[in-house]
Amino acid sequence: MGETWVLMKTAQTPTNIAVIKYWGKRDESLILPVNDSISVTLDPAHLCTTTTVAVSPVFQQDRMWLNGKEISLSGGRFQSCLREIRRRASEVEDKEKGVKIEKKDWEKLHVHIASYNNFPTAAGLASSAAGFACLVFALAKLMNVKEDESQLSAIARQGSGSACRSLFGGFVKWIMGKEEDGSDSVAVQLVDEKHWDDLFIVIAVVSSRQKETSSTSGMRESVETSLLLQHRAKEVVPKRILKMEEAIKNHSFESFAQLTCADSNQFHAVCLDTCPPIFYMNDTSHRIISYVEKWNRSEGSPVAYTFDAGPNAVLIARNRKAAAQLLQRLLFYFPPKSDIDLDSYVIGDKSILQDAGLEGLKDVEALSPPPEIKENAAAQKYPGEVSYFICTRPGRGPVLLTNENLALLNPETGLPK
Ligand SMILES: Nc1ncnc2c1ncn2[C@@H]1O[C@H](COP(=O)(O)OP(=O)(O)OP(=O)(O)O)[C@@H](O)[C@H]1O
Ligand SMILES: C[C@@](O)(CCOP(=O)(O)OP(=O)(O)O)CC(=O)O
């Protein structure tokens, strides 16, 4: 009685982008998909969630703050994650603080959670993926859960399907599973981030406004109305998954790019095949596809493009050289508005700007039209259509941050700093 201690853990978890898409559930509450999917984890240095979780006998209820604002934890998805983690909690002892928590105590103790995304939330940049993976990972560390990452992925999955793939770095497969209870619907690592570390990723953030149709309701409508979705899940994806695994294993970029682009296009075709149709891409997204397709058909090194449930383009280049050429082309067509400097227009791994010979806006203005463009009309520019570019690479999985200064909760009060 009268105890005031606070125990906490802070974790950092990456986001991921699917190259073979998850779209459609066979079980809504357990979040079980209609097909396998494969993703690449993005470098947490540029896109990640940081989450601090704390426990104290002083806390009166479970509470959460997302990007500084308190949010409700009453939703089924948060409740599922909290319930499943608590169920697996073990004894914890902190001798320095004189704290001992028995397994049974976890049912009564409340937690505080503070989370921060270093990129826009709910803008089609998979904030829910990094967010739920980080929540589950941090809680598992706090509560001394013994399960491995794959078993934790089955819990994160119940927060948001794509979150299960953020428990690992590199390339990750979410196996759809067969069991009704979802126990075999887990993520596994195909290869770690070092396996194919030449890859370079450029994300064109086309719009960071909240989208009109959430992934959750969009895929529900697709399952209910799209015949193409049924065909895709049964006939197309199983074959593509095998080919994609081969391409990744063998560093076969041509095959990887072809499969990635085809799968993104089919996912958006399923959205169009949904009644009423769902439009996630916009004119800018379509323009980017056309330019990349033109480039891929010319002599250049191919580039893979993929779009999630939003207009942002994720472009994957074979290596830095191809990425530098890609950035030159992108900046030619989509220069910043006149009041934005290059430093805030291209963020993340900016070293690629040097490779592209772009030190400032003058260099962008001086870019000549890409050689594959023969007709002048096609060389039209669209300043301001892209909000900014994020340059990044494949990255590692979740980590625990031991530096207390990086915690988002005050170690004395357990409230946001
Ligand atoms: N750091 C976080 N911790 C816990 N939950 C989060 C976090 N960030 C986002 N979420 C949850 O995810 C929701 C946003 O998910 P949503 O699917 O709408 O967007 P998105 O994940 O950014 O885009 P998409 O999944 O389509 O790529 C938020 O409303 C919140 O419930
Ligand atoms: C288009 C996608 O990004 C869909 C992601 O859907 P979510 O994982 O956000 O959906 P819920 O499971 O309902 O939370 C493709 C993918 O990431 O595989």
UniProtKB/TrEMBL annotation:
GO terms for molecular function: ATP binding; diphosphomevalonate decarboxylase activity; kinase activity. The keyword Kinase applies. It holds the Pfam family MVD-like_N. One of its GO terms (biological process) is sterol biosynthetic process. Residues 14-187 form the Diphosphomevalonate decarboxylase-like N-terminal domain. Keywords: ATP-binding, Kinase, Lipid biosynthesis, Lipid metabolism, Lyase, Nucleotide-binding, Peroxisome, Steroid biosynthesis, Steroid metabolism, Sterol biosynthesis, Sterol metabolism, Transferase. Residues 201-400 form the Mvd1 C-terminal domain. Its main location: other. Its EC number is 4.1.1.33. Signal peptide: none annotated. Gene3D superfamilies: 3.30.230.10, GHMP kinase, C-terminal domain. One of its GO terms (cellular component) is peroxisome. Performs the first committed step in the biosynthesis of isoprene-containing compounds such as sterols and terpenoids. PANTHER family: DIPHOSPHOMEVALONATE DECARBOXYLASE (PTHR10977:SF3). This is Diphosphomevalonate decarboxylase.
